[in-house]
Design a protein that fits this description.
Blueprint: E1 3-7, H1 11-20, E2 25-29, H2 42-46, E3 50-53, H3 57-67, E4 74-77, H4 90-94, E5 103-107, H5 112-116, E6 121-126, H6 130-139, E7 144-149, H7 152-174, H8 179-199, H9 204-208, H10 210-219, H11 226-235, H12 240-247, H13 252-267, H14 272-281, H15 286-294
Parallel strand pairs: 1-2, 1-3, 3-4, 4-5, 6-7
Antiparallel strand pairs: 5-6
Bound molecules: NADPH dihydro-nicotinamide-adenine-dinucleotide phosphate and 1,3-dihydroxyacetonephosphate.
Length: about 300
């Protein structure tokens, strides 16, 4: 049995620890200590060969700087987001700490709540090192079908961008604009994130597969999604602070919308839905925002 360490005992980290324990001996740690099975110290986890990191994108840069010690571990990154303050992708952040050959990124449709109930899904392990992707893929339980890909940037952008589109879809639902509008928004969102990804050398097919369309359709159509619920709150006129207080969990689409706004400005890119989400987060009226996107 392989020993796997999970860092971050939030919703996704604990769901992954549960799923991976079907075939492996799994240990978990977190910033806030918990009275749960196999909870150990960070120092003990860092001694293990295989580690899953489920710390949100907005926090990871500082966490790596303050806590990570490279001992040649193989890392699977479970977060989905782009750092707001810098506009850096996760692979840019991690590359200062972990070699490309030692790191993989997890993507695809996966609400933690369903994974914790052993409900089936299909996920993608993305790494430049195909041997490592295969290895991580082999750790997953029978109820999760795994695929592998070398398109790290495509998977990363798809996983992060879909959270922003999910916020827009939540706004659309909250404003009761109808299913036609939602479908129009989601499909234009898919095109927007694919175009953005391709500008960074991502493969088009990553956006129509599990990492892109798969995760987008899931997140942008369900109140199980925290990002979708952020959109519902914005449509009701709630502030970011009120929404996050009610949510009590992370919604990566918010930071990612700010990151995309920064990138769009720096690189002079046209990202219409991401821009509207950013503007709504900054106080623009949601209805006029969606109308400006959906009307001629
Ligand atoms: N939930 C889901 O269904 C899915 C989530 N994801 C992604 O996984 C990532 C984590 O999400 P999720 O688990 O749901 O979020 P949660 O808010 O449930 O958990 C976040 C985790 O990160 C830890 N954490 C937060 N800030 C810091 C910090 N500054 N230093 C150290 N640890 C920190 C928390 O530690 P502690 O609680 O111990 O303080 C907690 O374990 C996100 O990027 C999300 O998009 C991806 C797929 C599915
Ligand atoms: O990424 C997810 C499912 O694949 C989780 O989405 P939310 O963070 O919006 O809940």
């Amino acid at each position: 049995m392989n020993k796997i360490g999970v860092i971050g005992a939030g919703k996704w980290g604990s769901a992954l620890a549960f799923a991976l324990s079907e075939k492996n001996e799994v240990y978990i740690t977190s910033r806030t200590p918990r009275d749960i099975k196999n909870f150990v110290s960070l120092e003990e986890i860092l001694e293990l060969k295989y580690i899953v990191i489920a710390i949100p994108a907005q926090e990871i840069s500082l966490w790596l700087k303050e806590h990570f010690v490279n001992k040649g571990q193989k890392i699977l990154v479970a977060a989905k987001g782009i750092e707001a303050s810098s506009g850096l992708f996760l692979n840019n952040i991690y590359k200062d700490y972990v070699k490309d050959k030692d790191i993989a990124y997890l993507s695809g449709p996966s609400f933690a709540t369903e994974v914790k109930k052993s409900l089936p899904t299909a996920l993608v392990i993305n790494s430049k090192n195909e041997e490592l992707s295969d290895k991580f893929a082999s750790f997953f339980p029978s109820f999760i079908k795994t695929y592998t890909s070398t398109d790290v940037i495509g998977a990363e952008i798809a996983g992060a961008y879909k959270n922003v589109i999910a916020i827009a879809a939540g706004v659309c639902e909250g404003l009761e604009l109808g299913k036609n509008a939602a479908a129009a928004l989601i499909s234009r969102g898919l095109v927007e994130m694919q175009r953005f990804g391709c500008a960074y050398g991502a493969k088009e097919e990553s956006f129509v597969g599990l990492s892109g369309a798969g995760d987008l359709f899931l997140t942008a159509s369900s109140t199980m999604s925290r990002n979708f619920r952020v959109g519902l709150g914005l449509a009701k006129g709630k502030t970011q602070t009120e929404i996050l207080q009610e949510l009590g969990e992370v919604a990566e689409g918010i930071g990612t919308a700010y990151a995309l706004q920064k990138i769009a400005k720096d690189r002079d890119l046209y990202l219409p839905i991401a821009r509207e989400v950013y503007e709504i987060l900054e106080g623009k009226d949601p209805l006029s925002s969606l109308k400006s996107f959906l009307s001629n």
